[in-house]
Amino acid sequence: MFALFSLGLSCAPTPEDSAAEAASPPNGCGPWAAIQADRRWDYAFDADNNVTGDWATTVLHFRDGTGTLETASNSKAGAITEDATTRTTFSCDDGLVLTSSERQWAGINAGTSYNGASTTTYTEPARTWPKDVSAGDTWTVHYVGSTESNEVRTPFDYTDTYTVNSPSQVSVDAGDFRAFRVTISSDAGGVETTRNEWIASGTGVVQGDGYTLIAVR
Hints:
The protein is an all-beta fold. It has one helix at residues 19-22; strands spanning 40-45, 52-63, 66-77, 80-92, 95-109, 112-130, 138-149, 152-172, 175-188, 191-200, 204-208, 211-216.
């Protein structure tokens, strides 16, 4: 999932902070997803990632433990330039749980225009960020469901295994954070990949492989 996520720099956890302290969230999604009504996170791709551009994720709606996130992105990779908007519905159930998403995109590939739309539905709860996170924790998210585009429905079934490493100081445009590095190992039909994200209590994802947090509003 794209990076989701008050700066609250002074309240980010130190290595000595207990999980119980970090588990005092503003809502049932927990401090690591850091969901609040009308919150917005601005991100940008790193210059050396062979992708340029940025995106913003905004909490469009949040009430009674359910809500909608909207991610609007623009990117350029080689000859491809693309704008996309994704709306993701979620619930707060001992963490951040994804339920469905709708995506629209339009772009240009080597001078040729294209566009499309898709709808993704999860048939099992996809709890990406638990309510409580501590160094040494590990959990696996099983993504099962289907994506429909151009009247073609494509099923998916894959897993992400999250491992929480020791915290460190992370400096990005949005500020300085004490953040956990989380290693995410994906297995999609035998194709395995690994990526990293850095999460801070009260803010969410502040950095990932190839992108950084620019601002939180």
